[in-house]
Amino acid sequence: MELTGAEIAIRCLQEEGVEYVFGYPGGAVLFIYDALFNQDKVKHILVRHEQAAVHAADGYARSTEKVGVALVTSGPGATNAVTGIATAYMDSIPLVIISGQVPTSYIGEDAFQEVDTVGITRPCVKHNFLVKDIKELATTLKKAFHLAKSGRPGPVLVDIPKDVSTQKVEFSYPAAVDIRSYHPALHGDIDQLKLAAQLLLQARRPMIYSGGGVVLSGASKQLTDLAHLLNFPVTNTLMGLGGYPASDKQFLGMLGMHGTYEANLAMQNCDVLLAVGARFDDRVIGNVEHFCQVPRKIIHIDIDPSSIAKRVKVDVPIVGDVAHVLGDLLAILHGTKQQSEAAALAAWWQQIDAWRGRNSLAYRNSDEVIKPQFVVETLHRITGGDAFVTSDVGQHQMWAAQYYKFNQPRRWINSGGLGTMGFGLPAAMGVQLAHPDATVACITGEGSIQMNIQELSTCKQFRLPIKIVALNNRYLGMVRQWQEFFHGNRYSESYMDALPDFVKLAEAYGHIGMRIEKPSDVEPALKEAFARKHDLVFLDFKTDQTENVYPMVPGGKGLSEVILAEDL
Amino acid sequence: MRHIISLLMENEAGALSRVSGLFSARGYNIESLTVAPTEDPTMSRMTIVTSGSDEVIEQINKQLNKLIEVVSVMDMNEGDHLERELMLVKVRAVGEAREEMKRMADIFRGRIIDVTENSYTIELTGTGSKLDSFLQAIDSGLIMETVRTGACGIGRGDRILKL
């Protein structure tokens, strides 16, 4: 049967089993929206800004194992989507973004709402396509989904000119596509795996450092089994939280700039490091030279060869899907008679426990003023540690990462790589739609929430009972913290005067707002809010203005050059 | 160190800008870049001359391989290879210099492919350094114009870059 390009686009989404498309209509996608209108398999979520469409699709993808889909129009629709696309790209999130384009005959003529979308997005997508021939449309969309979710996942954009969406062609959706230049490895090299197993068994001060790759690959069980089998300590990156259960006694917490003392010191002082689905980025290992001063053997498992040996020299590189590689590694370890270095390990754990004794996440609670850490701890307690938590970017993000102990993967949803303020609320919309009965909290600040506050309207339209936990300290807190530490307390433009009344604002959008000013009200307010299963509640916590995130490894310093709260 | 990297990629619009964009985005050097379709019209072959430490060259190879449209990458410097570049030089050729210029072209195995009363256009093929030597050997005041293709490279013997 002959279908129009617009109908084909929607049929492809149906064939891929897409539940939700997050989008915003406009001139170049009118025919696609018309095709959307005439069916009910794919549900459309109308956002209030295209950036939010992509973040919502992103939140949906992060909290499931599915591909998130966004639909935007040409020109400003596409440019508004760019921040969302770059966010997903940095964190390797599988998305397909369909953008409208001006008709092919207008391309290059500076037509109304024309922009070189493929050119603009090229550096922040895994791949992109401009479909100029209707006959290529179905195959291109199939390729887009295949590329987005396979290998190292990422966003893929398909730009569809308006005339292509009106032309007709016989529709058939390919069951599979083969891209001759693209065959990501699944299994690691067996010799390298054996070498890795040997190194692990000989280790005297081992450390497992795991990142977002474990979450994306669904390798939490393999990772946990491996750590338990060997009795090795484990740390997670910001992106890897939940990939290893936080309540496990072998877990040392998050590492990096705001990581725990024990995680950073174990990372710095280990003799064998197993890096799994992580990429040694600057916020994780700090100064490369400082990190490399200590001789250690590094085994690095990653699906993307270019992540290996990018910043740090590696002794045993293993390219493959983390779940597969860890599974194979476990099989080798189960099959060997060689024992691990039990005595050395016991001494290493003793050392780690001494570092743990510093209790680097301790903070001084107060009866007068609400401490942000206390809000997150209380949130963790009253949600049973089982909520989906999205966050924005800044101090609140770090406190959420430090004090909400994630025991499961895909529960912690944040913009780690790009650090996008405004991510939290729209991401929470995608999470709530994917898990309609689950508890979803968006931990945010009064700065970040205002970057996509308009989505409160979307939440109303689609009845999304998100709980917004705003840690409102009347400062762009992380900026203020750096200004305090490194810029002589000159708080240049980090104070926000004239904040809105968030309670009234929430009410104006048809939601419930609560203002909490006393520490003793924190728990009752959270309980009340989370008891409201069907309402969005905006909790505006007036928190301590001067609180800083500790521990802190200042930028450019090494992991052991850490500032602890107790030092001050 | 200077490296010649050859790659095969899909002959599609935008593929070239993916490669050049990668180099600028990640701060890699490009000394020269040449590209043309191969005997298989669906594929282009590109030769990039770049320089960097071993670590940088390794990253360049990996990042190129990561591009979806790149089919195959080979670092020519990892084995025996041949390198050639074509240069056209327009020189002033009057009086005594006219004869001297012809002699120099002969010594460098160049060919004079265009002649006017006052000028020669010389075609010269060789490695980049041979072309450089020619330019240094002649009187620089006589050079009116030069154009170079940038290097292309091919492996010796059984070293073959194919799909």
Write the layout of secondary structure elements.
The complex is a heterodimer of chains A (568) and B (163).
Chain A: E1 2-4, H1 5-15, E2 20-23, H2 30-37, E3 43-46, H3 50-63, E4 68-72, H4 76-90, E5 95-101, H5 117-121, E6 127-130, H6 137-149, E7 155-161, H7 162-166, E8 168-170, H8 190-202, E9 206-210, H9 212-217, H10 220-230, E10 234-236, E11 251-254, H11 261-269, E12 272-276, H12 282-285, H13 288-292, E13 297-302, E14 316-319, H14 322-335, H15 342-356, H16 372-382, E15 388-391, H17 395-403, E16 412-413, H18 424-434, E17 440-445, H19 455-461, E18 467-472, H20 477-486, H21 502-508, E19 512-516, H22 519-531, E20 537-542
Parallel strand pairs in A: 2-3, 2-4, 4-5, 5-7, 6-7, 9-10, 9-12, 10-11, 12-13, 13-14, 15-16, 15-17, 17-18, 18-20, 19-20
Antiparallel strand pairs in A: 1-8
Helix pairs in contact in A: 1-2, 1-6, 3-4, 3-18, 8-14, 10-14, 11-15, 16-17, 16-22
Chain B: E1 2-10, H1 15-25, E2 32-37, E3 43-51, H2 54-66, E4 70-75, E5 81-92, H3 96-107, E6 111-115, E7 119-126, H4 128-137, E8 143-148, E9 152-155
Antiparallel strand pairs in B: 1-3, 1-4, 2-3, 5-7, 5-8, 5-9, 6-7
